[in-house]
Amino acid sequence: MLTVAYDGTNYCGWQLQPNGETIEGVLNRCLSELMKEPVEVIGASRTDSGVHAMGNVAVFDTDSPIPADKISYALNRSLPEDIRIRKSQEVAPAFHPRHCDSHKTYEYRIYCAAFPMPTKRLYSHFTYVPLDVNLMSQAARYLIGTHDFQSFCSAGAQVETTVRRIDSIKVWAEHGRDDGEDREIVIRVTGGGFLYNMVRIIAGTLMEVGRGHIQPQELERILEARNRQAAGPTAPACGLTLMGIAYADGDLKADI
Amino acid sequence: MLTVAYDGTNYCGWQLQPNGETIEGVLNRCLSELMKEPVEVIGASRTDSGVHAMGNVAVFDTDSPIPADKISYALNRSLPEDIRIRKSQEVAPAFHPRHCDSHKTYEYRIYCAAFPMPTKRLYSHFTYVPLDVNLMSQAARYLIGTHDFQSFCSAGAQVETTVRRIDSIKVWAEHGRDDGEDREIVIRVTGGGFLYNMVRIIAGTLMEVGRGHIQPQELERILEARNRQAAGPTAPACGLTLMGIAYADGDLKADI
Fold it and tell me: Which of the residue ranges A231-235, B23-27, B100-104, B231-235 would you say has the lowest mean pLDDT?
């Protein structure tokens, strides 16, 4: 099991694509070379193009004699610098990173200022619209718990159920500097699994709340609608980072 | 006067180069187009290749009728997204951004962890060597005040004097996450002007202190030596960001 961090800027997402470089594609290629046998990883979260990760998870089978905990070091030597293995460990052969019970934590970052900041442009979504963090925080509370999140799921997702569990959502502002007016709003969500674009739709909806277009208590109605049209827009990919994944088995944790 | 922010990753520094794109070159080109006359900016800090800025300063003369405070908006439309004008204002014709009394603030960031973090690689210098922030902070205090900083100046600099004034240096650690072991050490220096590579040599020397190779009190001896060989190595460019410049005239401030 690999704990994988990456800057998603230059990739067409996690999942193998016929045209375009993906995180999965690079991992398969570099691992196959290192292991001297064809390797295909299974990823925990198939993040979209432009989404980043500090702790995604990938597993693979191998007959290689390289000790599990040394694979991270060996693999990092051949990986491009925008992908890094932060940990490698042996897991039970039956372990599947998407079928085992887990908590995933995502952060969505919004940079609020009069002008975009070049050094933040790849990892934060910029807006010059003033946002009320307290309103966003109040609205977020309605999403905590087990709900049908169909309103927060992009069309095209093939899932048996749109019921998911959110354990916590925190919304706060980080000030750039003591005397600055710019700030970064962070939405941190932890849950037992997420639908397609779910965190980005939550972020887009909370931004609508922050600017006063949606009242916090309307989140209840939006959930009940079970209709994508009821929620706000899908916020851009660059603001999203998969922070880590913790599995029910406490030893298995991809976290920074 | 323009307050200029940029991601220095893809530029050969500020100053015009015959081969290679520079911040000054891009500004001159975009401004000349916008003003419909040849424009040449004068920059406050001629940052090196790979160094970033949140608040560098550039001035230029123009006969254009565009109101000074609107130039930022107009210019941002033609600039690449890794350069942004955060403010534009009229200043006295005699104002020269390098010859007027000012305070510049730089930050040097060091990401300390077992493995590099891809999303930090462009804006922080990575090290897996453990650093003692308290020792670095103690050592930094010896540099505050007016000193001959020849030991902290790269060869090749043509300056009349290597005496400079540092008003404050703060060193602190920012933790990545509540439960994470990784952290970012920040060195923030404010002073009345800096020699060539001075902040990067200070950062490299403080890193040597942090790992125990130099004792804090040795900074006194290093200053007295007036010899580049006495100080530590020049830390890499990517960790350095010019945060802002404040001029003695309180209205002139390029700060975030």
Answer: B100-104
- At residue B253 the predicted structure's pLDDT band, cuts being 50, 70 and 90, is low
Q: Are strands B240-247 and A52-59 parallel, antiparallel or unpaired?
A: unpaired
Q: What is the mean pLDDT of residues A229-237?
A: 97
Q: What is the mean pLDDT of residues B159-167?
A: 93
For chain A, the C-alpha Rg in angstroms (whole number) is 19
CATH 3.30.70.580 fits B2-99, yes or no: yes
CA distance B36 to chain A (A): 24
Q: Is B48 an active-site residue?
A: yes
pTM: 0.92
Class of domain B102-244: alpha beta
Q: Which fold has domain A2-92?
A: Alpha-Beta Plaits (3.30.70)
Residues of B in CB contact (< 8 Å) with A are: 5-7, 52, 54, 72, 76, 81-86, 114-119, 121-123, 176-177, 179-180, 182, 241, 243, 255-256
ipTM score for this prediction: 0.89
**Residues of chain A found within 8 Å of residue B255, distances taken between Cβ atoms:** 177, 179-180
DSSP type of residue B176? S
Which of B10, B84, B243, B255 should we substitute to test contact with A (largest number of A Cβ atoms within 10 Å)?
B84
Residues near A70 by beta carbon (within 8 Å), at least 6 away in sequence: A88
The H or E element containing residue B249 is none
